[in-house]
Design brief:
The protein is 66% helix and 0% strand. Helix 6 packs parallel to helix 8 (190-201). By secondary structure, it is mainly alpha-helical. It has 8 helices and no strands.
Length: 202
Amino acid sequence: MKFPLFASFLVFTAWLTYEISKHSRIDAEKDRSFWEKERRANNTRRQPLDDLLYIKIPFECLSMQLLPDDEQAAEYKETLRTLGESKIVNFTGITNTDLKLKYGAPNIDLLSKYDQNYTILARTLNQWASYLHKNGYIKEAREVLEYAVSTGTDVSGSYKLLCEIYKEENTPEKIKQLYPTAESLNSAMKNAIVRILQESES
């Protein structure tokens, strides 16, 4: 009885050694590929930025006139106004390496700033919409959120609140209209957002 057990142990050990070796080779190849790609990216010269999709903030759709004496509202509005004077691009899901390969390493700081501006925009739109909703401005909150979705936001709270508003306004069928945007997101939040939409419909 001992020999079959020992033989099984040897087979298992051999298999485990093979699997560890295989995954080590795969990881090593991934590392080599990454650093080679990074090397090429860092050597890419400055390229034109003509094809960037700059985001313009439509202040007329964001109910900036509401809650004029509210300090918290004033903070959101000021952030949006400041962003309105900046260049904004949504690079969600695109690595710095890929940006350098396409637009050149010398542009990476500028592109990172544009992307940071978008991150702040997406967060602020969600906060402003939530605050409007909290203060009873349902339609206005919806308009802000619909704009946020149109920019490709991956802030899950924006989708969740927008679904709630559609239900409050007795238009739950509009939730289906959010699927194309959610399913096209180049973001780690994509699946979570799709689940939010599915749960909102149930």
